[in-house]
Amino acid sequence: MVRRLSVRSPRLQRARRPPPSAPPTTAPMDPPSPPPPPPYPPAAAEGGPAADSQAAELPRLTVTQVEQMKVEAKVGEIYRVLFGNAPNANSLMLELWREQHVEYLTRGLKHLGPSFHVLDANRPWLCYWIIHALALLDEIPDDVEDDIVDFLSRCQDKDGGYGGGPGQLPHLATTYAAVNTLVTIGSERALSSVNRDNLYKFMLRMKDTSGAFRMHDGGEIDVRASYTAISVASLVNILDGELAKGVGNYITRCQTYEGGIAGEPYAEAHGGYTFCGLATMILLNEVDKLDLASLIGWVAFRQGVECGFQGRTNKLVDGCYSFWQGAALALTQKLMTVVDEQLKSSYSSKRPPGDDACGTSSSTEAAYYAKFGFDFIEKSNQIGPLFHNIALQQYILLCAQVLDGGLRDKPGKNRDHYHSCYCLSGLSVSQYSAMVDSDACPLPQHVLGPYSNLLEPIHPLYNVVLDKYHTAYEFFSS
Amino acid sequence: MAPSSTSSEGASDEWLPPSRRPELADVVPVTQDDGPHPVVAIAYRDEFREVMDYFRALYFAGERSVRALHLTAEVIDLNPGNYTVWHFRRLVLEALDADLREEMDFVDRIAECNPKNYQIWHHKRWLAEKLGPDIANKEHEFTRKILSMDAKNYHAWSHRQWVLQALGGWETELQYCNQLLEEDVFNNSAWNQRYLVITSSPLLGGLAAMRDSEVDYTVGAILANPQNESPWRYLKGLYKGENNLLMADERISDVCLKVLKHDSTCVFALSLLLDLLQIGLQPSDELKGTIEAIKNSDPEADEAVDADLATAICSILQRCDPLRINYWSWYRTTISSQT
């Protein structure tokens, strides 16, 4: 029998009902109860964006406007049902359908149909999307843990890193998926299966002269590669000055005039890359190189009338950005001292934030870097949620959930494991975003729907369930 | 010259499994090492399974041959996301000294059917890097084609940007941006591209030289569609790192005030005015009057009459932009920290 290192602390037990009638004493800094979600604007006219009689007078609508109106109409229909319901019907609509999600996820863990061949180079990702979603629901099945460890061991390359399937070239993205899966399983067998020495060598081989990382041998360079490399290296405690060298400068160059971060220098600001870039800078302890106020403003404006987040300006809402954008703002809630310093200096001088950065730390020790991820999560939030956390939960519960289990991009789309993972991750971030004391449980008013909707908290820098992170941190620190 | 990289002759024939092809008779297929209890097990169809088994045999053997090239094309057709196959294909192409122009035609046909695939665009970049500036126009034509079907395809835009910077073709790029923005002024990707051109084109003299005309262009776009976030962000971007110039340009506060006259709850206008005040703009009487009028239009206003202008704007924003009430509350704290 494998000895499980993970011991659940009582405070993390999933609540099945609201806390006792005497809730924990409200901290002095506890933010006020958030207002109800904003009223939904009137839907677009039935049958089309503009009535015929108006067409002659109004400018022609663009593709962007038409597509946006279609989505708003669909979402508006759902919300009107909610607002028109009796209160007890609402509680059903606002429930997280745990059993259905667990069934959908567990089935996918064992067997996937022929159409999944297009993900044949992404099987560690499938493991991660499924296992992480189950961990958020606190429902990891015991009987598959060893099989997953065995499978991922067959994806591990003899020279380090994990491929997208057995015998495939090692790739930083699937390495991230594999390591996060193993950390989420959390057993000694899982954690010890990671060959850290070879992993380190693989990552060094992926370093480019720009400081950034290639996804694989001869592969593409972008901010995702930097994040997956730095996140994994930090998580398993092999991050050092060599791996860190130049990464911060590369990511700084990817922050755009809009404030968000792009996949490459000059590309368009994008929610996924913004999260990846911001998290990487925090893990490197170089977050002061980013213009944080500009980034916060950009992300805050990605939450739209549908209550969910879009990935780019004037793009459509998508449930996965509940995590990518929601977590980015949640991270900045712990960075307010840095933000304040930047604002003071930017208002008093002509030089923009970042130009005054001192550059990479001269330290090269791995232990120096590992603690940034650890210390960060121990920090209290210095401010309440910077996004509308209740509205976001509303989008996820009402628009992203699929009745038969699984979650999706938006109404009208199909469920998939990727969106199940990132919608639930975003839901967790949202539920915990109002907490000031990092050891407390969220108050019921910060959890939309019944309190049983509450998910496990995550470490937002890695997107790993928090108690699994702590187990891994202890394991890899010894 | 190396043989063609396209599919072998007889494409119209019935598909023949690899195990029945004479040219592969000596190959021993390698099954996937999934272990005794596979997880996330995909129910592969026979065709997929067999082609992959033969691919693995050649890949593990490192065989850089014509038949390997053909087989990689087949695997790519089945699963274009398999980055290992693309990587191996590049090794084979190099070993065979293949005609990379033909390879670009091959990959373009695949890209049209899989326009959001990382591996395909990376392969194109690799090819374009080797083919050099001669291929710049062809690559621009290709990305135009993809963007005509999906105007915001992130990969197509990244490729277009890379080709511009590495291989050239700047001459018509601003005109292309104009065309796209005329078709859809909400196309944020086109605004982002415009920013690249304005700041980086070697033909235009850089942002300082272009700023004045770009401000006029952007103000026009704002006035035409004040609810379009893209030009508001672009306008501020034109003054990135130049707060003094931003304050000094009267067109900025003017466009905000014009918009607010027609829609007193335009969040973008209020937000930009707030930013201007934060960096030290001395408000004109017109600005003060406009904000006062908006503030007074709220019967529930509980603000002290002597609250400063920035705080007043924050209060207005908290009221008319409830989705971002938390953000504006935070922004408000940054105002008091300046006092």
UniProtKB/TrEMBL annotation, chain A:
Presence of keyword Repeat: yes
Sequence ranges of Basic residues compositional bias: 1-17
Tell me a GO cellular component: protein farnesyltransferase complex
What EC class does the entry list?
transferase
Quote the biased-composition stretches of kind Pro residues, using this chain's numbering: 18-42
Keywords (A to Z) from UniProt = Metal-binding, Prenyltransferase, Repeat, Transferase, Zinc
Q: Where is this region: Disordered?
A: 1-54
E.C. number, please? 2.5.1.58
Sequence ranges of Low complexity compositional bias: 43-54
A biological process (GO) of this protein is: prenylation
One Gene Ontology term of the molecular function aspect = zinc ion binding
Per the annotation, how and in what number is the cofactor bound? Answer: Binds 1 zinc ion per subunit.
Q: What cofactor does its activity depend on?
A: Zn(2+)
Show the InterPro entries listed in the entry: FTB, PGGT1B-like, Prenyltrans, Terpenoid_cyclase/PrenylTrfase
* Superkingdom to which the source organism belongs: Eukaryota
Sequence ranges assigned to domain Prenyltransferase alpha-alpha toroid in this UniProt record: 97-464
Please give the catalytic activity noted in the UniProt record.
L-cysteinyl-[protein] + (2E,6E)-farnesyl diphosphate = S-(2E,6E)-farnesyl-L-cysteinyl-[protein] + diphosphate
- Record's keyword annotation contains Zinc: yes
Outline the subunit composition. Answer: Heterodimer of FTA and FTB.
What does this protein do, in the record's words? Catalyzes the transfer of a farnesyl moiety from farnesyl diphosphate to a cysteine at the fourth position from the C-terminus of several proteins. The beta subunit is responsible for peptide-binding.
Concerning its family, UniProt says: Belongs to the protein prenyltransferase subunit beta family.
Recorded protein name is Protein farnesyltransferase subunit beta
TrEMBL record, chain B:
Q: Which GO terms describe its molecular function?
A: CAAX-protein geranylgeranyltransferase activity; protein farnesyltransferase activity; protein heterodimerization activity
| Database matches in InterPro entries | Prenyl_trans_a
Which key words tag this protein in UniProt? Answer: Magnesium, Prenyltransferase, Repeat, Transferase
> What residue spans carry the Polar residues bias annotation?
1-10
Reactions performed catalytically:
geranylgeranyl diphosphate + L-cysteinyl-[protein] = S-geranylgeranyl-L-cysteinyl-[protein] + diphosphate; L-cysteinyl-[protein] + (2E,6E)-farnesyl diphosphate = S-(2E,6E)-farnesyl-L-cysteinyl-[protein] + diphosphate
- Region feature Disordered, mapped onto this chain: 1-21
Q: Which SUPFAM superfamilies match?
A: Protein prenylyltransferase (SSF48439)
Question: What PROSITE patterns does this protein's entry cite?
Answer: PFTA
Top-level taxon in the UniProt lineage: Eukaryota
Pfam families according to UniProt: PPTA
Q: Which cofactor does it need?
A: Mg(2+)
- Could you tell me the EC number(s) of this protein? 2.5.1.58, 2.5.1.59
**Gene Ontology biological-process entries:** negative regulation of abscisic acid-activated signaling pathway; peptide pheromone maturation; regulation of cell shape; regulation of meristem development; response to water deprivation
Q: Quote a single Gene Ontology cellular component term.
A: protein farnesyltransferase complex
Q: Could you say which enzyme class this protein belongs to? A: transferase
Asked whether the keyword Transferase is assigned, the reply is: yes
By sequence similarity, the record places it as follows: Belongs to the protein prenyltransferase subunit alpha family.
Q: What does this protein do?
A: Essential subunit of both the farnesyltransferase and the geranylgeranyltransferase complex. Contributes to the transfer of a farnesyl or geranylgeranyl moiety from farnesyl or geranylgeranyl diphosphate to a cysteine at the fourth position from the C-terminus of several proteins having the C-terminal sequence Cys-aliphatic-aliphatic-X.
Under what name is this protein listed? Protein farnesyltransferase/geranylgeranyltransferase type-1 subunit alpha
From which source organism is this entry? Oryza sativa subsp. japonica
